[in-house]
Amino acid sequence: MNKYVDSIVGIIKGALSVSVNLDGKISSRVWILGAGKASVQMAADLYEELPTPPHDGIIISPTEDYLDNIQIFKGTHPYPDEDTVAASFELKSVAESIPEGDTVFFCLSGGASSLLIIPPFGIDTDELAFTYKLLLESGASIHEMNVVRKHLCDLKGGKLGELLSHTNLITLVSSDVPGNDISTIGSGPTVGDSSTFKDAERILKEYILWNRVPLSIQTHIQLGIEGVIPENPKPDSALFKNHKVQVINSAENLAKLVSDYFVVKGFDTWVLPEAYSDDVRSVAKMISSKAISVLSKGDPAKKPAALIFYGESTVEVKGNGTGGRNQELALACAISLEGQHKVTMISIGTDGVDGPTDAAGAIIDSHTTLKARKKKISPEEFLQKNDSYYFHQKMDTLIKTGPTGNNLMDLQVLIVE
Fold first, then answer.
1. Could you tell me where the beta strands, DSSP code E, fall in 13-95?
2. For residue 348, which of 387, 309, 374 has the smallest C-alpha distance?
3. Which of 121, 194, 220, 338 is most open to solvent, judged by the fewest CB atoms within 10 Å of its CB?
4. Radius of gyration of the chain (CA)
5. Are residues 273 and 386 both part of a single domain?
6. How far is C-alpha 64 from the geometric centre of its chain's CA atoms?
7. Residues 366, 284 within the same domain
């Protein structure tokens, strides 16, 4: 399986190259705005499609880059900082300066929830960052986390779209969300938001976070519930009448590309019908059961088989270890598949970053945990402490790619021979 890692990473990096449907000739002046891990490459692809260069633009990305006529500011992920906020104010200023009737392309991808952020009055950036950390460690889904985030920012939840309502706005989306819900991807800065402040309060209370978030967060949400602070603009608002949305890339497309690659290599392939969205232990159980089913009865594919999974899992962090959801998923699968005949799995974040680590994910096989036990390393102990990074580091099973410039949820490829 190690020999396939580089090929899979290459497919991930190449999957971003897309053709944009410009819907006829663009006669007005063009601006390019954007935020997210894939936004720079999206803008570069768009640049090639435009009949003339854009007039101006600004993009916020987690990496430094350069494009003609477009300013690129570096922000932080997964937690915002003051530089990110400053960059977001710059983007807002540009958006407000665009003349009526001009065309604006907004390149949106995963990561924008952290990279595009202006804290509401009374909330400090470090208070937002702390709240983001609580959400990420709570086990909440991406949809639930982004409902809260949309109500703690002056740009997300359709508010940037409100600022651009006088323009011909086209949002180009690279999806990292199960179901490709455009109001959830990047916390939906340019699209209407059907959720409410009450929903945000409910989610924080459901995950036992309400009394842990800063008082300023509680106060802001409570003022929203009372109507002192207006709700985000809704999907049926006239503000969005000149707005078009194109989902130009998704994890489904990536999974098909990976499947096609393994078909050429002689594998019987099977692709998960739709993205998973569940806690990491449940996803590990699902993946492991598919592998065992292939071994025992040749279902859903016959050996040699390549099974492709994709989605966004959640992790409730109870230990004090280091890791990411892909590393934890790989460790959980390694335990479940211990001793099974010739089973190997790669689990990787398609952005090249898995949690607060320098790894993209991990690669395991049915002998990984057996080898660990021979070294007096307990896989279960590392899993219990949410310390998957150091388990994989000890076993030399980490995958390190650096940022890929893409972001299409997580990907798992399981080989049964």
1. 30-35, 56-61, 71-74
2. 309
3. 121
4. 22
5. yes
6. 19
7. yes
pLDDT in tens, 253-304: 999 999 999 999 999 999 999 999 999 999 999 999 999 999 999 999 999 9
Domain co-membership, 273 together with 236: no
Lookup: tokens for 113: 């929830």
Sign of CA dihedral 382, 385, 388, 394: negative
Whole-number Å distance between alpha carbons of 335 and 328? 11
Are residue 264 and residue 240 in the same domain, yes or no?
A: no
315, part of any domain: yes
pLDDT tens per residue across span 212-233? 999 999 999 999 999 999 999 9
Block residue for tokens 């059907």: 194
CB 185 within 8 A of CB 177: yes
d(CA 334, CA 363): 9
Question: How many CB atoms are located within 10 Å of the residue 96 CB?
Answer: 10
pTM of the model: 0.91
Tell me: do 29 and 71 sit in the same domain: yes
> Which range marks the domain in which residue 178 is found?
19-118+153-195+232-249
Q: Which tokens hold the place of 292?
A: 């065992």
Alpha-carbon 389 to chain mean position: 20
Name the 3-class secondary structure at 385: coil
Rounded Cα–Cα distance for residues 280 and 295 (Å): 23
Whose structure tokens read 């409910």? 202
Question: In terms of DSSP bridges, do strands 71-74 and 56-61 run parallel, antiparallel, or are they unpaired?
Answer: parallel
Residue appearing with tokens 């779209």: 161
Specify if 130 maps to a domain.
no
Encoded tokens for 388: 């998957």
Residues 6+ apart with CB under 8 A from 114: 75, 76, 77, 78, 79, 80, 84, 132
Classify residue 81 by its DSSP letter.
Answer: -
Sheet strands (E) in 62-221: 71-74, 103-109, 168-174
